[in-house]
Task: structure prediction
Amino acid sequence: MRGATYSFDIFDTCLIRSCGFSHNVFDLLAIKVLGEKSDWNQRADFVNIRLKAEKQIRNQKEEEITLQEIYNLCDFSGITDVSPEKIAEMEMEIEKKVLVPVYSIKKSIAKLHSLGINIYYISDMYLPQEFIKEILQRYGFLEKGDKIYVSCTSGKTKQDGSLFDLVAQENNINFHNWEHWGDNKHSDYLIPKKKGIKAHLVKHKFSKYEKNILSLHLFQDSLINQRLAGIQKAIRLSEKPSKKTDLAIDVIIPTLVSFVFKILLNAQKEGITHLYFLSRDGALPYHIASLFQEYFPNIELKYFYTSRSALYFPGIQSTSIESLAELFGSMKGKKLFEIFIDKTNIDITPFLAKEKLTQTIDTELQGYTLLKELYNNKSFIKKLNDEHQRQKDLVIKYFIQTEIASQTHKNGLVDIRGTRKCHQIINQILINNNFPQIKGYYWEVTENRRQIKDAGEYFAEFHSERFQFNTQEFKYIENLYSVIEQYICATGTSRTIAYKEENGNILPIFEPNSESDIKKELFYLHKKVADLYIYHYKENRLFLHNSEISYLTQYNLIKFAHLPYKSDLIALTNITTNDSRFDYSYLIKKYSFADLLKRRFNMNEWIRGSICYSIYYWTGEKIGRAIVNKILKNSQ
Result:
Protein backbone atom coordinates (compact mmCIF):
# COMPACT_ATOMS: atom_id res chain seq x y z
CA MET A 1 0.00 0.00 0.00
CA ARG A 2 2.83 2.40 0.86
CA GLY A 3 4.49 3.99 -2.17
CA ALA A 4 1.35 3.68 -4.27
CA THR A 5 -0.71 6.64 -5.52
CA TYR A 6 -4.40 6.96 -4.62
CA SER A 7 -6.88 9.28 -6.28
CA PHE A 8 -10.61 9.86 -6.04
CA ASP A 9 -13.21 11.52 -8.19
CA ILE A 10 -15.19 14.12 -6.22
CA PHE A 11 -18.78 14.52 -7.40
CA ASP A 12 -20.96 11.39 -7.08
CA THR A 13 -18.00 9.64 -5.47
CA CYS A 14 -16.82 11.58 -2.38
CA LEU A 15 -19.82 13.87 -2.45
CA ILE A 16 -23.41 13.35 -3.56
CA ARG A 17 -26.27 15.81 -3.90
CA SER A 18 -29.34 15.61 -1.70
CA CYS A 19 -31.44 16.84 -4.63
CA GLY A 20 -30.78 13.52 -6.34
CA PHE A 21 -29.38 14.67 -9.67
CA SER A 22 -27.32 17.68 -10.77
CA HIS A 23 -30.11 19.11 -12.97
CA ASN A 24 -32.31 19.56 -9.91
CA VAL A 25 -29.88 22.20 -8.63
CA PHE A 26 -31.22 24.48 -11.33
CA ASP A 27 -34.84 24.03 -10.24
CA LEU A 28 -33.78 25.04 -6.73
CA LEU A 29 -31.87 27.96 -8.20
CA ALA A 30 -34.96 29.13 -10.09
CA ILE A 31 -36.99 29.10 -6.87
CA LYS A 32 -34.25 31.02 -5.04
CA VAL A 33 -33.95 33.67 -7.76
CA LEU A 34 -37.61 34.05 -8.75
CA GLY A 35 -39.28 33.26 -5.42
CA GLU A 36 -41.36 30.42 -3.99
CA LYS A 37 -44.58 31.89 -5.39
CA SER A 38 -43.20 32.58 -8.86
CA ASP A 39 -44.91 31.26 -11.98
CA TRP A 40 -43.87 27.73 -12.90
CA ASN A 41 -43.48 28.65 -16.60
CA GLN A 42 -41.00 31.39 -15.71
CA ARG A 43 -39.01 28.95 -13.61
CA ALA A 44 -39.01 26.43 -16.47
CA ASP A 45 -37.69 29.08 -18.86
CA PHE A 46 -35.05 30.11 -16.32
CA VAL A 47 -33.75 26.54 -16.06
CA ASN A 48 -33.87 26.13 -19.82
CA ILE A 49 -31.71 29.24 -20.31
CA ARG A 50 -29.13 27.91 -17.82
CA LEU A 51 -29.01 24.44 -19.45
CA LYS A 52 -28.82 25.79 -23.01
CA ALA A 53 -25.96 28.12 -22.06
CA GLU A 54 -23.92 25.21 -20.70
CA LYS A 55 -24.64 23.13 -23.79
CA GLN A 56 -23.69 25.99 -26.08
CA ILE A 57 -20.35 26.70 -24.43
CA ARG A 58 -19.46 22.99 -24.39
CA ASN A 59 -20.07 22.83 -28.12
CA GLN A 60 -17.74 25.83 -28.59
CA LYS A 61 -14.82 24.50 -26.53
CA GLU A 62 -12.87 21.25 -26.50
CA GLU A 63 -11.44 21.72 -23.01
CA GLU A 64 -13.48 21.98 -19.82
CA ILE A 65 -15.69 25.02 -19.38
CA THR A 66 -16.02 27.32 -16.35
CA LEU A 67 -19.05 28.52 -14.42
CA GLN A 68 -18.29 32.08 -15.47
CA GLU A 69 -18.28 31.09 -19.15
CA ILE A 70 -21.70 29.47 -18.73
CA TYR A 71 -23.20 32.58 -17.18
CA ASN A 72 -21.61 34.86 -19.76
CA LEU A 73 -24.06 33.25 -22.22
CA CYS A 74 -27.10 33.44 -19.92
CA ASP A 75 -29.66 36.13 -20.73
CA PHE A 76 -32.34 36.19 -18.03
CA SER A 77 -33.82 39.54 -19.06
CA GLY A 78 -37.61 39.47 -19.04
CA ILE A 79 -37.54 36.93 -16.20
CA THR A 80 -35.41 38.61 -13.54
CA ASP A 81 -33.28 41.69 -12.95
CA VAL A 82 -30.78 39.71 -10.90
CA SER A 83 -27.42 39.75 -12.68
CA PRO A 84 -25.89 36.55 -14.09
CA GLU A 85 -22.89 37.09 -11.80
CA LYS A 86 -25.12 37.12 -8.73
CA ILE A 87 -27.04 34.08 -9.97
CA ALA A 88 -23.74 32.19 -10.41
CA GLU A 89 -22.95 32.93 -6.76
CA MET A 90 -26.40 31.72 -5.76
CA GLU A 91 -25.86 28.47 -7.67
CA MET A 92 -22.72 27.82 -5.65
CA GLU A 93 -24.60 28.59 -2.42
CA ILE A 94 -27.15 25.92 -3.32
CA GLU A 95 -24.43 23.43 -4.20
CA LYS A 96 -22.88 24.02 -0.76
CA LYS A 97 -26.16 23.18 0.94
CA VAL A 98 -27.08 20.07 -1.04
CA LEU A 99 -23.65 18.42 -1.21
CA VAL A 100 -23.23 15.62 1.32
CA PRO A 101 -20.17 13.45 2.13
CA VAL A 102 -20.31 9.68 1.52
CA TYR A 103 -19.45 7.86 4.74
CA SER A 104 -17.86 4.77 3.14
CA ILE A 105 -15.56 6.82 0.86
CA LYS A 106 -14.60 9.18 3.66
CA LYS A 107 -13.78 6.20 5.88
CA SER A 108 -11.56 4.66 3.17
CA ILE A 109 -9.73 7.94 2.67
CA ALA A 110 -9.29 8.39 6.44
CA LYS A 111 -7.67 4.95 6.59
CA LEU A 112 -5.21 5.95 3.85
CA HIS A 113 -4.51 9.21 5.66
CA SER A 114 -3.80 7.30 8.89
CA LEU A 115 -1.05 5.43 7.01
CA GLY A 116 0.53 8.73 5.98
CA ILE A 117 -0.71 8.53 2.39
CA ASN A 118 -1.70 11.68 0.53
CA ILE A 119 -4.74 11.72 -1.74
CA TYR A 120 -5.27 13.24 -5.18
CA TYR A 121 -8.77 14.55 -5.83
CA ILE A 122 -9.48 14.71 -9.56
CA SER A 123 -12.66 16.10 -11.10
CA ASP A 124 -14.11 17.10 -14.45
CA MET A 125 -16.16 20.04 -13.23
CA TYR A 126 -17.05 23.64 -14.15
CA LEU A 127 -17.30 24.77 -10.52
CA PRO A 128 -14.25 26.75 -9.30
CA GLN A 129 -11.42 24.79 -7.69
CA GLU A 130 -11.41 26.99 -4.55
CA PHE A 131 -15.11 26.33 -4.07
CA ILE A 132 -14.56 22.57 -4.33
CA LYS A 133 -11.59 22.79 -1.94
CA GLU A 134 -13.79 24.54 0.61
CA ILE A 135 -16.41 21.76 0.45
CA LEU A 136 -13.79 19.03 0.83
CA GLN A 137 -12.25 20.84 3.80
CA ARG A 138 -15.63 21.32 5.45
CA TYR A 139 -16.33 17.59 5.40
CA GLY A 140 -12.84 16.55 6.51
CA PHE A 141 -11.61 15.02 3.25
CA LEU A 142 -8.54 17.23 2.83
CA GLU A 143 -5.35 16.86 4.83
CA LYS A 144 -1.97 18.51 4.45
CA GLY A 145 -0.22 17.17 1.37
CA ASP A 146 -3.41 16.27 -0.53
CA LYS A 147 -3.86 17.82 -3.96
CA ILE A 148 -6.89 18.84 -6.02
CA TYR A 149 -7.06 18.83 -9.81
CA VAL A 150 -10.15 20.32 -11.43
CA SER A 151 -10.60 20.39 -15.18
CA CYS A 152 -11.92 23.96 -15.41
CA THR A 153 -8.74 25.22 -13.71
CA SER A 154 -6.18 23.00 -15.45
CA GLY A 155 -7.76 22.99 -18.90
CA LYS A 156 -7.32 19.20 -18.95
CA THR A 157 -10.01 16.53 -18.51
CA LYS A 158 -10.35 12.97 -17.29
CA GLN A 159 -12.70 12.37 -20.21
CA ASP A 160 -9.86 12.48 -22.75
CA GLY A 161 -7.21 11.26 -20.30
CA SER A 162 -5.21 14.49 -20.31
CA LEU A 163 -5.94 15.27 -16.66
CA PHE A 164 -4.48 11.93 -15.57
CA ASP A 165 -1.41 12.71 -17.69
CA LEU A 166 -1.05 16.11 -16.01
CA VAL A 167 -1.26 14.64 -12.50
CA ALA A 168 1.33 12.00 -13.42
CA GLN A 169 3.75 14.54 -14.95
CA GLU A 170 3.55 17.09 -12.15
CA ASN A 171 3.95 14.48 -9.39
CA ASN A 172 6.26 11.95 -11.08
CA ILE A 173 3.66 9.16 -10.76
CA ASN A 174 3.91 5.76 -12.43
CA PHE A 175 0.52 4.76 -13.89
CA HIS A 176 1.07 1.12 -12.91
CA ASN A 177 1.47 2.10 -9.27
CA TRP A 178 -1.73 4.17 -9.15
CA GLU A 179 -5.26 3.34 -8.00
CA HIS A 180 -8.25 5.53 -8.83
CA TRP A 181 -11.89 5.51 -7.64
CA GLY A 182 -14.78 7.21 -9.42
CA ASP A 183 -18.36 6.84 -10.59
CA ASN A 184 -18.11 7.60 -14.32
CA LYS A 185 -17.59 4.42 -16.32
CA HIS A 186 -15.78 6.23 -19.14
CA SER A 187 -13.78 8.92 -17.32
CA ASP A 188 -13.08 7.13 -14.04
CA TYR A 189 -12.77 3.53 -15.22
CA LEU A 190 -12.11 2.91 -18.92
CA ILE A 191 -9.78 5.85 -19.56
CA PRO A 192 -7.51 5.33 -16.51
CA LYS A 193 -7.56 1.57 -17.06
CA LYS A 194 -6.20 2.07 -20.60
CA LYS A 195 -3.30 3.98 -19.09
CA GLY A 196 -2.46 1.14 -16.73
CA ILE A 197 -4.07 2.69 -13.66
CA LYS A 198 -5.91 0.25 -11.42
CA ALA A 199 -9.41 1.71 -11.67
CA HIS A 200 -12.35 1.08 -9.33
CA LEU A 201 -15.86 1.93 -10.46
CA VAL A 202 -17.91 3.43 -7.62
CA LYS A 203 -21.68 3.07 -7.68
CA HIS A 204 -23.73 4.73 -4.97
CA LYS A 205 -27.02 3.03 -5.75
CA PHE A 206 -30.51 4.01 -4.73
CA SER A 207 -32.12 1.63 -2.23
CA LYS A 208 -35.19 -0.40 -3.14
CA TYR A 209 -37.44 2.10 -1.35
CA GLU A 210 -35.73 5.04 -3.06
CA LYS A 211 -36.21 3.31 -6.43
CA ASN A 212 -39.91 3.00 -5.58
CA ILE A 213 -40.11 6.78 -5.32
CA LEU A 214 -38.14 7.31 -8.53
CA SER A 215 -40.55 4.96 -10.33
CA LEU A 216 -43.52 7.20 -9.48
CA HIS A 217 -43.38 9.63 -12.40
CA LEU A 218 -46.29 11.72 -11.15
CA PHE A 219 -44.73 15.18 -10.99
CA GLN A 220 -42.76 15.75 -14.16
CA ASP A 221 -42.72 19.54 -13.78
CA SER A 222 -41.22 19.68 -10.31
CA LEU A 223 -39.42 16.29 -10.28
CA ILE A 224 -40.03 16.20 -6.54
CA ASN A 225 -39.76 12.41 -6.51
CA GLN A 226 -36.12 12.76 -7.58
CA ARG A 227 -35.42 15.27 -4.85
CA LEU A 228 -37.13 13.13 -2.21
CA ALA A 229 -35.24 9.99 -3.25
CA GLY A 230 -32.07 12.08 -3.36
CA ILE A 231 -32.51 13.26 0.22
CA GLN A 232 -33.09 9.73 1.45
CA LYS A 233 -30.09 8.38 -0.43
CA ALA A 234 -27.82 11.24 0.68
CA ILE A 235 -28.62 10.78 4.38
CA ARG A 236 -28.41 7.00 4.17
CA LEU A 237 -24.98 7.13 2.53
CA SER A 238 -23.66 9.93 4.75
CA GLU A 239 -24.29 7.94 7.94
CA LYS A 240 -22.59 4.84 9.31
CA PRO A 241 -24.37 1.81 7.75
CA SER A 242 -27.21 0.61 9.96
CA LYS A 243 -30.43 -1.23 9.25
CA LYS A 244 -32.24 0.98 11.76
CA THR A 245 -30.94 4.10 9.98
CA ASP A 246 -32.02 2.72 6.60
CA LEU A 247 -35.53 1.99 7.86
CA ALA A 248 -35.73 5.41 9.50
CA ILE A 249 -34.74 7.38 6.40
CA ASP A 250 -36.53 5.27 3.78
CA VAL A 251 -39.86 4.73 5.55
CA ILE A 252 -40.34 6.24 9.00
CA ILE A 253 -39.10 9.82 9.03
CA PRO A 254 -40.35 10.91 5.55
CA THR A 255 -43.87 9.68 6.36
CA LEU A 256 -43.94 11.32 9.79
CA VAL A 257 -42.52 14.62 8.53
CA SER A 258 -45.20 15.01 5.86
CA PHE A 259 -47.88 14.18 8.44
CA VAL A 260 -46.57 16.70 11.00
CA PHE A 261 -46.28 19.44 8.37
CA LYS A 262 -49.92 18.78 7.41
CA ILE A 263 -50.90 19.15 11.07
CA LEU A 264 -49.12 22.47 11.35
CA LEU A 265 -50.74 23.78 8.16
CA ASN A 266 -54.18 22.76 9.36
CA ALA A 267 -53.63 24.16 12.86
CA GLN A 268 -52.51 27.45 11.33
CA LYS A 269 -55.60 27.52 9.11
CA GLU A 270 -57.82 26.79 12.14
CA GLY A 271 -56.25 29.60 14.15
CA ILE A 272 -54.87 27.20 16.76
CA THR A 273 -52.27 28.95 18.92
CA HIS A 274 -51.12 26.10 21.18
CA LEU A 275 -50.48 22.54 20.04
CA TYR A 276 -50.02 19.84 22.69
CA PHE A 277 -48.15 16.65 21.79
CA LEU A 278 -49.22 13.78 24.04
CA SER A 279 -46.47 11.72 25.65
CA ARG A 280 -44.90 9.39 24.78
CA ASP A 281 -46.10 8.73 21.21
CA GLY A 282 -46.05 12.43 20.48
CA ALA A 283 -42.37 12.92 21.35
CA LEU A 284 -40.96 12.39 17.86
CA PRO A 285 -43.75 14.42 16.14
CA TYR A 286 -43.08 17.16 18.74
CA HIS A 287 -39.39 17.18 17.82
CA ILE A 288 -40.24 17.27 14.10
CA ALA A 289 -42.72 20.12 14.60
CA SER A 290 -40.10 22.13 16.51
CA LEU A 291 -37.83 21.98 13.45
CA PHE A 292 -40.56 23.69 11.40
CA GLN A 293 -41.31 26.32 14.05
CA GLU A 294 -39.87 29.14 11.89
CA TYR A 295 -42.74 28.66 9.40
CA PHE A 296 -45.41 28.69 12.11
CA PRO A 297 -44.37 31.43 14.59
CA ASN A 298 -47.94 31.87 15.88
CA ILE A 299 -48.25 28.28 17.08
CA GLU A 300 -46.69 27.43 20.44
CA LEU A 301 -45.64 23.79 20.72
CA LYS A 302 -45.92 21.96 24.04
CA TYR A 303 -45.14 18.45 25.26
CA PHE A 304 -47.97 17.10 27.42
CA TYR A 305 -47.38 14.31 29.95
CA THR A 306 -50.30 11.92 29.96
CA SER A 307 -51.40 8.38 29.08
CA ARG A 308 -54.38 6.06 29.21
CA SER A 309 -53.41 5.13 32.78
CA ALA A 310 -53.37 8.78 33.80
CA LEU A 311 -56.72 9.64 32.16
CA TYR A 312 -59.03 6.64 31.87
CA PHE A 313 -59.85 6.16 35.56
CA PRO A 314 -60.31 9.84 36.50
CA GLY A 315 -62.23 10.21 33.22
CA ILE A 316 -65.03 7.76 34.03
CA GLN A 317 -68.34 9.45 34.84
CA SER A 318 -69.03 7.33 37.94
CA THR A 319 -67.37 4.66 40.06
CA SER A 320 -70.19 2.16 39.60
CA ILE A 321 -69.31 -1.47 39.03
CA GLU A 322 -70.58 -1.14 35.45
CA SER A 323 -68.25 1.80 34.77
CA LEU A 324 -65.28 -0.02 36.24
CA ALA A 325 -66.05 -3.21 34.32
CA GLU A 326 -66.18 -1.19 31.08
CA LEU A 327 -62.88 0.47 31.97
CA PHE A 328 -61.21 -2.89 32.59
CA GLY A 329 -62.45 -4.57 29.42
CA SER A 330 -61.65 -8.28 29.18
CA MET A 331 -60.32 -9.66 32.47
CA LYS A 332 -59.79 -13.20 31.22
CA GLY A 333 -56.22 -14.43 31.65
CA LYS A 334 -55.29 -11.57 33.99
CA LYS A 335 -55.03 -11.05 37.76
CA LEU A 336 -57.37 -8.64 39.55
CA PHE A 337 -54.55 -7.05 41.54
CA GLU A 338 -52.62 -6.27 38.34
CA ILE A 339 -55.75 -4.95 36.58
CA PHE A 340 -56.41 -2.44 39.36
CA ILE A 341 -52.80 -1.26 39.49
CA ASP A 342 -52.66 -0.88 35.70
CA LYS A 343 -56.06 0.76 35.20
CA THR A 344 -56.60 2.78 38.40
CA ASN A 345 -53.29 2.94 40.31
CA ILE A 346 -55.18 1.58 43.33
CA ASP A 347 -53.70 -1.14 45.57
CA ILE A 348 -56.59 -3.45 46.51
CA THR A 349 -54.59 -5.82 48.73
CA PRO A 350 -56.34 -4.58 51.95
CA PHE A 351 -59.77 -5.42 50.56
CA LEU A 352 -59.57 -8.98 49.19
CA ALA A 353 -57.98 -12.28 50.14
CA LYS A 354 -54.50 -12.80 48.66
CA GLU A 355 -55.44 -15.93 46.73
CA LYS A 356 -58.24 -14.04 44.99
CA LEU A 357 -55.99 -11.09 44.21
CA THR A 358 -53.32 -13.15 42.52
CA GLN A 359 -55.29 -15.94 40.84
CA THR A 360 -55.50 -15.91 37.06
CA ILE A 361 -59.05 -15.17 35.98
CA ASP A 362 -60.39 -17.97 33.77
CA THR A 363 -63.68 -16.43 32.61
CA GLU A 364 -65.27 -12.99 32.35
CA LEU A 365 -67.96 -14.14 34.78
CA GLN A 366 -65.31 -15.04 37.34
CA GLY A 367 -63.75 -11.59 36.98
CA TYR A 368 -67.08 -9.84 37.40
CA THR A 369 -67.85 -11.98 40.46
CA LEU A 370 -64.59 -10.88 42.09
CA LEU A 371 -65.49 -7.25 41.34
CA LYS A 372 -68.89 -7.69 43.01
CA GLU A 373 -67.17 -9.09 46.07
CA LEU A 374 -64.98 -6.00 46.24
CA TYR A 375 -68.00 -3.72 45.91
CA ASN A 376 -69.51 -5.38 48.98
CA ASN A 377 -66.61 -3.94 51.00
CA LYS A 378 -67.50 -0.43 52.24
CA SER A 379 -63.85 0.42 52.87
CA PHE A 380 -63.07 -0.39 49.24
CA ILE A 381 -65.96 1.80 48.03
CA LYS A 382 -64.65 4.71 50.09
CA LYS A 383 -61.10 4.21 48.83
CA LEU A 384 -62.36 3.96 45.24
CA ASN A 385 -64.46 7.14 45.46
CA ASP A 386 -61.79 9.12 47.30
CA GLU A 387 -59.09 8.10 44.84
CA HIS A 388 -61.31 8.82 41.84
CA GLN A 389 -62.04 12.34 43.10
CA ARG A 390 -58.40 12.95 44.03
CA GLN A 391 -57.18 11.93 40.60
CA LYS A 392 -59.90 14.02 38.88
CA ASP A 393 -58.82 17.08 40.87
CA LEU A 394 -55.17 16.57 39.97
CA VAL A 395 -55.98 16.13 36.28
CA ILE A 396 -57.90 19.40 35.99
CA LYS A 397 -55.18 21.21 37.96
CA TYR A 398 -52.60 19.85 35.51
CA PHE A 399 -54.80 20.93 32.59
CA ILE A 400 -54.99 24.48 33.99
CA GLN A 401 -51.28 24.58 34.82
CA THR A 402 -50.28 23.56 31.30
CA GLU A 403 -52.99 25.82 29.79
CA ILE A 404 -54.54 23.02 27.78
CA ALA A 405 -57.56 24.24 29.76
CA SER A 406 -57.76 27.85 28.64
CA GLN A 407 -60.39 30.49 27.96
CA THR A 408 -57.95 32.60 25.92
CA HIS A 409 -56.00 30.13 23.79
CA LYS A 410 -57.29 28.02 20.95
CA ASN A 411 -55.70 24.64 21.59
CA GLY A 412 -55.17 21.37 19.77
CA LEU A 413 -53.69 18.02 20.74
CA VAL A 414 -51.54 15.61 18.74
CA ASP A 415 -51.59 11.86 19.20
CA ILE A 416 -50.45 9.13 16.83
CA ARG A 417 -53.21 6.56 16.68
CA GLY A 418 -56.07 5.09 18.65
CA THR A 419 -59.74 5.12 19.49
CA ARG A 420 -59.77 8.82 20.48
CA LYS A 421 -60.85 7.81 23.99
CA CYS A 422 -58.15 10.00 25.56
CA HIS A 423 -59.37 12.87 23.39
CA GLN A 424 -62.93 12.23 24.54
CA ILE A 425 -61.91 12.21 28.20
CA ILE A 426 -59.83 15.37 27.84
CA ASN A 427 -62.69 17.22 26.17
CA GLN A 428 -65.23 15.91 28.70
CA ILE A 429 -63.08 17.13 31.59
CA LEU A 430 -62.70 20.50 29.88
CA ILE A 431 -66.47 20.83 29.33
CA ASN A 432 -67.25 19.78 32.90
CA ASN A 433 -65.00 22.57 34.13
CA ASN A 434 -66.35 25.21 31.72
CA PHE A 435 -63.41 25.21 29.29
CA PRO A 436 -63.72 24.94 25.49
CA GLN A 437 -63.05 21.65 23.72
CA ILE A 438 -59.88 21.17 21.69
CA LYS A 439 -59.30 19.63 18.27
CA GLY A 440 -57.34 16.39 17.92
CA TYR A 441 -54.76 15.40 15.30
CA TYR A 442 -53.98 11.76 14.52
CA TRP A 443 -51.85 9.79 12.11
CA GLU A 444 -54.42 6.99 12.28
CA VAL A 445 -57.79 6.53 13.97
CA THR A 446 -59.24 3.06 14.47
CA GLU A 447 -62.56 1.73 13.25
CA ASN A 448 -63.97 1.67 16.80
CA ARG A 449 -63.01 5.30 17.47
CA ARG A 450 -65.14 7.78 19.36
CA GLN A 451 -67.29 9.84 17.01
CA ILE A 452 -67.14 13.63 16.61
CA LYS A 453 -70.36 14.16 18.58
CA ASP A 454 -68.80 12.38 21.57
CA ALA A 455 -65.11 13.31 21.38
CA GLY A 456 -64.98 16.54 19.37
CA GLU A 457 -63.44 17.62 16.07
CA TYR A 458 -60.36 15.88 14.73
CA PHE A 459 -58.02 15.50 11.75
CA ALA A 460 -56.58 12.12 10.74
CA GLU A 461 -54.25 11.00 7.99
CA PHE A 462 -55.65 7.47 8.01
CA HIS A 463 -59.02 5.95 9.00
CA SER A 464 -58.37 2.25 9.54
CA GLU A 465 -61.73 0.97 8.26
CA ARG A 466 -61.10 2.62 4.90
CA PHE A 467 -58.03 0.47 4.28
CA GLN A 468 -60.42 -2.33 3.38
CA PHE A 469 -61.89 -0.22 0.57
CA ASN A 470 -58.48 0.40 -1.00
CA THR A 471 -55.82 -1.76 -2.68
CA GLN A 472 -54.91 -5.14 -1.27
CA GLU A 473 -51.53 -3.77 -0.18
CA PHE A 474 -52.96 -0.69 1.54
CA LYS A 475 -54.97 -2.70 4.04
CA TYR A 476 -51.83 -3.96 5.77
CA ILE A 477 -51.09 -0.50 7.22
CA GLU A 478 -53.85 -1.23 9.72
CA ASN A 479 -51.73 -4.03 11.18
CA LEU A 480 -48.78 -1.74 11.88
CA TYR A 481 -50.21 -0.46 15.18
CA SER A 482 -47.53 -2.14 17.32
CA VAL A 483 -44.75 -0.98 15.00
CA ILE A 484 -46.08 2.57 15.12
CA GLU A 485 -46.45 2.73 18.89
CA GLN A 486 -43.49 0.61 20.01
CA TYR A 487 -40.88 1.32 17.32
CA ILE A 488 -41.64 4.40 15.26
CA CYS A 489 -42.72 6.44 18.29
CA ALA A 490 -40.48 4.76 20.85
CA THR A 491 -38.75 7.08 23.31
CA GLY A 492 -37.43 4.74 25.99
CA THR A 493 -38.60 7.18 28.64
CA SER A 494 -40.90 6.31 31.53
CA ARG A 495 -44.65 6.18 31.02
CA THR A 496 -46.87 8.70 32.83
CA ILE A 497 -49.35 6.83 35.03
CA ALA A 498 -50.78 9.59 37.27
CA TYR A 499 -50.16 13.06 38.71
CA LYS A 500 -49.03 14.43 42.06
CA GLU A 501 -48.86 17.86 43.68
CA GLU A 502 -45.59 19.21 45.04
CA ASN A 503 -45.10 22.79 46.27
CA GLY A 504 -48.15 23.95 44.34
CA ASN A 505 -47.03 22.34 41.07
CA ILE A 506 -48.65 19.33 39.40
CA LEU A 507 -46.06 16.83 38.26
CA PRO A 508 -46.34 13.55 36.35
CA ILE A 509 -45.82 10.25 38.17
CA PHE A 510 -43.89 7.76 36.06
CA GLU A 511 -44.27 4.01 35.92
CA PRO A 512 -41.34 2.30 37.70
CA ASN A 513 -38.93 0.31 35.53
CA SER A 514 -40.59 1.42 32.30
CA GLU A 515 -37.49 2.95 30.72
CA SER A 516 -35.65 1.19 27.90
CA ASP A 517 -32.08 1.93 26.87
CA ILE A 518 -32.66 0.25 23.49
CA LYS A 519 -35.63 2.51 22.79
CA LYS A 520 -33.76 5.59 24.04
CA GLU A 521 -31.03 4.88 21.49
CA LEU A 522 -33.71 4.38 18.84
CA PHE A 523 -35.35 7.69 19.74
CA TYR A 524 -31.98 9.44 19.52
CA LEU A 525 -31.40 7.88 16.09
CA HIS A 526 -34.85 8.91 14.85
CA LYS A 527 -34.30 12.49 16.05
CA LYS A 528 -30.90 12.61 14.35
CA VAL A 529 -32.31 11.32 11.06
CA ALA A 530 -35.23 13.78 11.37
CA ASP A 531 -32.77 16.66 11.87
CA LEU A 532 -30.87 15.72 8.72
CA TYR A 533 -33.98 15.00 6.69
CA ILE A 534 -35.75 18.25 7.58
CA TYR A 535 -32.61 20.28 6.86
CA HIS A 536 -32.57 18.89 3.32
CA TYR A 537 -36.38 18.99 3.09
CA LYS A 538 -36.14 22.74 3.59
CA GLU A 539 -33.14 23.26 1.31
CA ASN A 540 -34.86 21.25 -1.44
CA ARG A 541 -38.05 23.26 -0.90
CA LEU A 542 -40.13 20.10 -0.61
CA PHE A 543 -42.40 21.68 1.99
CA LEU A 544 -43.89 23.61 -0.96
CA HIS A 545 -45.14 20.24 -2.24
CA ASN A 546 -45.89 18.55 1.09
CA SER A 547 -49.28 17.12 0.03
CA GLU A 548 -47.74 15.49 -3.04
CA ILE A 549 -44.75 14.28 -1.03
CA SER A 550 -47.07 12.57 1.44
CA TYR A 551 -48.39 10.32 -1.36
CA LEU A 552 -44.84 9.30 -2.25
CA THR A 553 -43.86 8.54 1.35
CA GLN A 554 -47.08 6.63 2.00
CA TYR A 555 -46.32 4.44 -1.01
CA ASN A 556 -43.20 3.16 0.75
CA LEU A 557 -45.11 2.76 4.01
CA ILE A 558 -47.57 0.55 2.13
CA LYS A 559 -44.75 -1.51 0.62
CA PHE A 560 -43.19 -1.94 4.06
CA ALA A 561 -46.50 -2.98 5.65
CA HIS A 562 -47.30 -5.38 2.80
CA LEU A 563 -43.98 -7.22 2.36
CA PRO A 564 -41.07 -5.97 4.48
CA TYR A 565 -37.48 -6.74 3.55
CA LYS A 566 -35.32 -8.87 5.82
CA SER A 567 -33.19 -5.84 6.71
CA ASP A 568 -36.35 -4.02 7.87
CA LEU A 569 -37.25 -6.91 10.13
CA ILE A 570 -33.76 -7.20 11.58
CA ALA A 571 -34.08 -3.54 12.60
CA LEU A 572 -37.23 -4.44 14.57
CA THR A 573 -35.71 -7.31 16.55
CA ASN A 574 -35.13 -6.98 20.31
CA ILE A 575 -37.86 -4.33 20.58
CA THR A 576 -40.40 -5.05 23.31
CA THR A 577 -44.10 -4.23 23.20
CA ASN A 578 -46.75 -4.26 25.90
CA ASP A 579 -50.45 -3.74 26.51
CA SER A 580 -50.11 -3.21 30.26
CA ARG A 581 -47.47 -2.96 32.95
CA PHE A 582 -47.53 -6.74 33.34
CA ASP A 583 -47.66 -8.04 29.76
CA TYR A 584 -44.46 -7.61 27.71
CA SER A 585 -43.47 -9.44 24.51
CA TYR A 586 -41.27 -8.85 21.46
CA LEU A 587 -42.42 -6.79 18.50
CA ILE A 588 -41.37 -9.54 16.09
CA LYS A 589 -39.97 -13.00 16.75
CA LYS A 590 -38.84 -16.08 14.89
CA TYR A 591 -41.41 -18.89 15.03
CA SER A 592 -41.15 -22.58 14.36
CA PHE A 593 -43.21 -23.99 11.50
CA ALA A 594 -45.49 -25.74 14.01
CA ASP A 595 -46.15 -22.56 15.95
CA LEU A 596 -46.96 -20.69 12.74
CA LEU A 597 -49.49 -23.33 11.75
CA LYS A 598 -51.06 -23.17 15.20
CA ARG A 599 -51.05 -19.33 15.06
CA ARG A 600 -49.46 -18.99 18.48
CA PHE A 601 -48.96 -15.25 18.28
CA ASN A 602 -48.97 -12.52 20.90
CA MET A 603 -51.68 -9.92 20.33
CA ASN A 604 -49.17 -7.07 20.78
CA GLU A 605 -46.59 -8.17 18.22
CA TRP A 606 -46.50 -7.35 14.52
CA ILE A 607 -47.76 -10.74 13.37
CA ARG A 608 -47.15 -10.12 9.68
CA GLY A 609 -43.55 -9.15 10.44
CA SER A 610 -43.02 -12.29 12.51
CA ILE A 611 -44.43 -14.49 9.73
CA CYS A 612 -42.15 -12.93 7.09
CA TYR A 613 -39.14 -13.01 9.42
CA SER A 614 -39.68 -16.70 10.15
CA ILE A 615 -40.17 -17.69 6.50
CA TYR A 616 -37.10 -15.69 5.39
CA TYR A 617 -35.09 -17.49 8.08
CA TRP A 618 -36.14 -20.93 6.79
CA THR A 619 -35.87 -20.30 3.05
CA GLY A 620 -33.77 -17.17 2.52
CA GLU A 621 -35.22 -13.78 1.64
CA LYS A 622 -35.61 -14.18 -2.13
CA ILE A 623 -37.50 -17.48 -1.96
CA GLY A 624 -39.32 -16.35 1.19
CA ARG A 625 -40.68 -13.21 -0.48
CA ALA A 626 -41.90 -15.30 -3.40
CA ILE A 627 -43.64 -17.70 -1.00
CA VAL A 628 -45.31 -14.90 0.96
CA ASN A 629 -46.38 -13.21 -2.27
CA LYS A 630 -47.95 -16.44 -3.53
CA ILE A 631 -49.77 -16.98 -0.25
CA LEU A 632 -51.11 -13.43 -0.45
CA LYS A 633 -52.34 -13.85 -4.02
CA ASN A 634 -54.09 -17.09 -3.17
CA SER A 635 -55.78 -15.49 -0.16
CA GLN A 636 -57.15 -12.53 -2.13
Notes: The first strand starts at residue 5 and ends at 8. The chain has a mean pLDDT of 93. The first helix runs from residue 24 to 34. The two ends are 59 Å apart (CA to CA).
